[in-house]
Amino acid sequence: MKHQSILLTAPLALALCISSCQKKPVVAPVNNPDPRVKAVGPASPDQPATPPVVANPTARAAKLGFAQMLSKDTETLVLVQNGAEVAKRFKGSKLWSFIKEQNPALGETGNGAEADGADVTEAVTPMDFMGREFFIATGKASSVQAGNLVTFSNRTNYFQFRSTLKMLITSMTGDTGMAEVEPANPLASMAELVKDPESGVKLMEKMDMPPVFVGFKTTSENKEKVGKALTGMVANLASAGSSVEEISFEVDGRAFAGNQLSGKKLAEDLQADESAIEEMDEQFGAETRKDLLKVLAKKNLIAVSGMVNDYAVLFIGTNKEDLKFAASPAESMAGSAALAFVDPYLEKNPVAVMYSDKGVLQSLAVGSGISNLAHAVRDAISGNGKVDTREIEALLDVVAEREKDLLGMNKFSNFGAVALLDEGFKLETFGGGNLPNLMAETSNKLGGLGEAPDVAMFANWTSNEAYGTKVKSYLEAIVETSYSIAKNVSTWDVKEQESFKQFKGGFAMFEENFSKDAAQVWDTLSGNVGEGLGNETALVVDLNGEMPAIPNVPQELVKDGKFPRISWVKPVVNRAKLAGAWEKLNSSGENIMKQVSKMMEKEQAMPKPMKSEKNDLTTWFFSLPLMTEDFSPSITLNDKWFIASTSKLHAVSLVGLADKSQKGKTGAHLSMDFDALRKCANHWLESVGKNKEVIFKDNTDAADDFSANQEMFKSGIEAFSDLDQLTIHTRREGGTERSSLHLKTQ
Is residue 259 a part of any domain in this protein? Predict the structure, then answer.
């Protein structure tokens, strides 16, 4: 039988990571994040906005490369510019110098000379594609087709998962063994998909390839070979067989050539294949088969390439009429309000610009949870005639309902992003998701904790209590459903399967001995603890802790070493709730240990926490051989603060800072200090060097290797000295979402 198919896809975006080592004394402004509304001028979360910065559309287009050729109905865009400059800056960094020292061969190739007009070979290099400008864009109907594709994918996954689960259940509860169960027929699964009201012929009739543009800005030296490379990509479509034909045409005087896959010819080929028709009729039914071929006959896919000024352009779509270009910059994507968010950054020559219509984001978010699989489980187990699964089916529906309720808090707007080289690398994003998990306009109060000495990482945010409540409800439904499924399965009559007997015995033991206490632990952690603490959180990590006395680690290194100290800080709003939570957790822990003692036939006592008090602070910790004051997992609290920490000393010092702190950014803020990381790394290198005779006393080869490579280790640490700090700030300004990433360099 002859097998042929059409692949209908829709492109997504592309991730870019860039670094720079040049510092400029300029701070990038920010603006209103919604790309389709009037841009506003630079603002910080703590200061009022300055007057709007709005560029002339022609001036904006001049800075945004091929975006000035794309039509205004473009729905997604990824534009990367000045790749050769980015590569040049990276190759001027200490990190690249270190990499070259360790890998000398890297300095012999990939020098990007082709971007500067030097002689090059016929081989296509990454700089041929990325050296000047690269873009990928999708045109009108991208959001609609993305939704169709997601629906098709979800329904495909549903049927595959349901079929696999049904087969598994049959093998376990049926009269035959698993080895005798026939594997599922792929066409049978496809038949269900084709007949499905949600994803069948009607959906396939709606599905089409949206216009997709991919292009690269060339030089006079590499124009020919880049063009040939795209031609080669287009030629791959010809592998689909006789239903593919060569096409060529002109758009605004520019020649394009490639291939077209004709749905009509493909349908005719299938119709002429008697064995294919016979099998399709058997699986789909004659009427459904006719409808399917009728839809297929209307589908076409074209892939062509050509030159547009200095750009080698690849186009994939449904028909050539969608291959069109803007008549002028003012009428282009670049000249529209969609990209107005870029205006404040134009003078800094952005290296990347990204945009997505909110409809695309909404379509991609459909079915992003597990409800699709929950429905597959429900339908696989229902009505099997072997066991009563009505309770599970009802619980699975609850999971789907609560997921829908949770995801309903997500709202979308048009998304924009701009990346630039400014004191390192900056990425500013605008719009997109609405951050339902955060109080994104609330000013945090614990920002001062990040100013403690040698803090390597600091994070601070205020959670949205309403979102947390829905998350808790959703997780409870998942846990309850999973438990109910396990309980139901444990009652099945499964023969000659040792692994199932072990599962059944283990579940019975858990059910009898631990289930009630496990449920109480969950209820306490998600109830009393959450109700006793406020919504703001600070995470503080420094590298100044004393090293614990780890077994087999020389005392010289323990005495001289440094260890991370990690503290999680939250305000206390109801200390009585926390006290009640501890009583319940302790009670459950004691009950669990009693059951463990009974099973092991040996007394297993619940560890008793130690308590220390200082001023109004109480710290609870366990006294174990490895513990010191600076390394003791503990809980420190008073009427104002709750701190879970790896270090009592760290927790106490942070309480003092928390009492004084009344400042912080809105939304969520994270920072990493590379100086602190380098300082700690150098300290460890020096400590190991001073004590290498003791550390490697039983391994002279390791000692020799360390000595031989000590300078390399030092150079490796120094290689990162270009990096100063990483900050990420996510918040809402003026009712719209904003995110700023800054990898600051020296």
Answer: no
CA distance 323 to 270: 30
pLDDT for 185: 58
What is this structure's pTM? 0.84
* 57 vs 65: CA distance, rounded Å: 13
Tell me, what's the pLDDT at 110?
46
Q: Is 55 in a helix, a strand, or coil?
A: coil
Contact between residue 631 and residue 646 where contact means Cβ atoms under 8 Å apart: yes
Q: What is the per-residue pLDDT for 181?
A: 47
- Encoded tokens for 249: 């045409």
What is the Cα–Cα distance from 36 to 714, expressed in whole angstroms? 50
Question: Contact, 615 vs 630, CB < 8 A?
Answer: no
Q: If you write DSSP's letter for every residue of 149-202 in order, what string do you get? A: HHHHHHHHHHHHHHHHHHHHHHHHHSSS-GGGSPPPPHHHHHHHHHH-TTTSHH
Q: Is 695 found in the same domain as 580?
A: no
CA distance 421 to 340: 19
Model confidence pLDDT, tens digit, residues 542-570: 998 888 888 878 888 888 888 899 999 99
- Asked whether residue 624 is assigned to any structural domain, the reply reads no
CA 177 – CA 195 distance, rounded (Å): 31
Residues 541 and 443 in one domain: yes
Angle at 636 between CA 630 and CA 641, to 5 degrees: 130
Only one residue has tokens 């709202």, namely 411
Place of tokens 């490697």: 696
Is the distance from CB of 313 to CB of 206 less than 8 angstroms? no
- Written as one letter, the residue type at 135 is F
| Structural domain ending residue among the three candidates 585, 606, 627 | 606
pLDDT at 622 over 60: yes
Instruction: Tell me how far apart the alpha carbons of residues 652 and 540 are, in angstroms, rounded to a whole number.
Output: 13
Domain that residue 663 falls in: 435-464+537-572+642-746
Q: Residues 731, 647: one domain?
A: yes
Which amino acid type is present at position 740? S
What whole-number distance in Å separates Cα of residue 266 and Cα of residue 315? 22
Asked if 485 and 511 sit in the same domain, the reply is yes
Assess whether 483 and 556 both reside in one domain.
no
- 83 vs 221: CA distance, rounded Å: 17
Which of 590, 606, 622 is at the close of a domain?
606
Asked whether residue 561 falls in the same domain as residue 485, the answer is: no
| DSSP result, 588-604 | HHHHHHHHHHHHHTS--
Query: Which tokens in the block code for residue 544?
Result: 């100044």
CA 251 to chain centroid, in Å, comes to: 39
Q: Is residue 189 part of a domain?
A: no
Residues 582 and 729 in one domain: no
544 and 666 co-located in one domain: yes
Distance set, CA 118 to CA 132, 134, 220, 306, 350 (Å): 14, 20, 11, 24, 25
DSSP 209: P
pLDDT for residue 122 is more than 90: no
* Total domains, the chain: 2
| Domain-embedded: residue 39 | no
Separation of alpha carbons 203 and 8, rounded Å: 12
| Contact call for residues 494 and 500 (beta carbons, < 8 A) | yes
Q: Select from 306, 321, 327 the least CA-distant residue to 70.
A: 327
